[in-house]
Give the backbone structure.
Amino acid sequence: MLSKDFIELYKTEGLAEEAFKELRFKMGISCKKCGGNQHYWLRSKSQFQCKSCRFRTTLKSGTVLEGSKLPCSYFFIAVHLLMKHGYNLSLDEFQKYTGHKYHDPLWDFLKKIKDYTKETEQNSLFINFMEVVNQCFVNRKEVTSIRLMV
C-alpha cells in the first residue's frame, strides 16, 4: 500500500477514532482519580470508565490530543509522516496532507506530536502504531474491498 493510500484511510474519522481507542488500550490508560489501570470502553458515553472507581475519561484526555479540537485522524497522518520524513516534516507539507485551512492549530499540534515522539520511547510507540494501523485500517480496508467484490 502506498503512503498516499494510508493517508486517505487515516482521513476516515470513524476508523481513526477506533484506532486511537485501540492505541490508548495498548499504551495504557491511567485513571486521573484513583490511578487505576483497568478500564473498559463505555459505548453509550464514548468514554473509558475505570473499573475501580468508575471515573470516566474521554478518548483524548491525558494524551497529546487533549484540549485539541482537531480530529484524531490528524494524529495518524502526523505520526505516519514523521515515520516517513523524520523530524524534517514541515508545516506546509502536513497542511497539504490534512487539507486543513489554518496554520496556527496545525503548528501547535505538529509541535506537540514531535515533542511527544521525542519524549516517548520511539520504538514502542511506532510498533504499537503499526500494529493498530494494521489492525484498524489495513485489515478493515481488505474486508471492505472483499465485500464490494461479492
Residues 27 and 54 are 20 Å apart (CA to CA). Strands lie at 39-42, 47-50, 56-58.
